[in-house]
From TrEMBL:
NCBIfam families membership: ogt
Pfam families attached to this UniProt entry: DNA_binding_1
SUPFAM superfamilies in UniProt: Methylated DNA-protein cysteine methyltransferase domain (SSF53155), Methylated DNA-protein cysteine methyltransferase, C-terminal domain (SSF46767)
Residues making up the signal peptide according to the UniProt record: none
Keyword Methyltransferase: yes
Membrane-spanning segments: none
Keywords: DNA damage, Methyltransferase, Transferase
Record keyword S-adenosyl-L-methionine present: no
GO MF term list: methylated-DNA-[protein]-cysteine S-methyltransferase activity
Record protein name field: Methylated-DNA--protein-cysteine methyltransferase
Biological process (GO), any one: DNA repair
Limits of the Methylated-DNA-[protein]-cysteine S-methyltransferase DNA binding domain: 77-161
Amino acid sequence: MLSKESTLFSAVVAAPFGAIGIRTQDQAISELVYLPPRFAEKDATDKVAAKAQKQIEKYLQQPDFRFKLPLQQVGTDFQRKVWAVIAAIPQGEVWTYGQIAKHIKSAPRAVGQACGANWFPLVIPCHRVTAAGGLGGFGHTDDESSFHIGVKLWLLQHEGVSTYSPVIAPKKAK
């Protein structure tokens, strides 16, 4: 039976850590949300949600799957700049907030805030961004026992990251 909470989404995909809610608007994805297990699966209510549902299911089976989804234009110019760098981090690698900040000539805290404002996790894989000294936060929390940190750990392990040592960021093209 569909839970009342699940009606908030255009689709809900079951995941090993809980579920992923998909919201759509105007033929684009407007938001992806990590959800706890109490959310019931929900079949897509439109073509964009159906496409996202299929792609998320493929990613959950194949961690090297690359998303191709229409995303709404959201965020500030700075956030979009950070998200573009995050989207380019290869599967199986992590970068630190500091590495991204250096890459775009900013500050690690500002990068962390942009990560937390990401409307499209998985598609813009902010789980691949860690603190210099360890895992860092996720979903606006750094409590090691939180649901969101558990999601981050699952995603990194799914992608083959067994340690949280960041790789060296490539030099910026001139």
